[in-house]
Sequence to fold (293 residues):
Amino acid sequence: MVKYKPVYKVSISGQEIGYAKNKNVEETIKENILQNTSKNIDAIDIKETAEYELKLVSRTTKTDEEKITEKLEESTKITYKYYDIALSNQTIQSVNTIEEAEELINEIKQSNKEELNLSIIEKYTQNEEEIATTQIEIAKTDIQEKIEVKKAQIAQQARIDAMPDVNGIKLATRPVTGTITSRYGENSRIRSSAHTGLDIATSTGTPIKVVSAGTVTFAGNGRSYGNLVKVSHGNGVETWYAHASKIYVKAGQQVNAEDVIAAVGSTGNSTGPHLHFEIRINGNVVNPQNYLY
Ligand SMILES: [Zn+2]
Fold:
């Protein structure tokens, strides 16, 4: 009668952990990881090595695969791999495989005539939570949207660059969009002299953007101008924003191009909500429409 069975005594780093029926604990761990986690796995590295020693033990002896697996898993490092898609060296999306990344880049290049600075960056991490990959169709739509934004920015910059500067100062934006109701130089029965600015009518409360960076030199009651903001841009160039319902800046404040400085209103000598916009060079008014794109 046989009272013994062969098993493996398993030691990890010289420490006896228990018995196993087979010598395949590492393979089982790797198979489990590959089955249960993401497709981003690049490498599975079990730092500690199990040593197996064949033993004959009593047939009733239980084996300890679970305990051995647990101990080895503690020292297991998984390295994950994914791919960033960069536009002009700025990451805009991540995908799981190199095939997806290449497919994306090819399709995007095919549907855009322009030269695009797109690149693939191979990324590694041991923290699975860092991986923020996107399903390829969603990534494609998102990248195309970002490219459209970039194209619009480039086109806007080109329009700005093509416009004449005001004594060396480039205007980055219109202060508001609306209907031009009175042009520079026009005469009107509500004024005693030719119009010193451009009137753009739009609804009360519409944000007024400063057309270029500078310093606020006046913010307050400008008599016939109503609530008035003046911004100095250097080189003797000043812009004026009149008839505001609200003013959001103070004299002395620095502003960046396109900052909202006031809201459209009808204060002062005005017959309805509009922005009266002036450009002055060394104190002399000039026609704003010569400088706005
Ligand atoms: Zn006006």
Notes: The chain has three domains: 4-74, 81-162, 179-290.
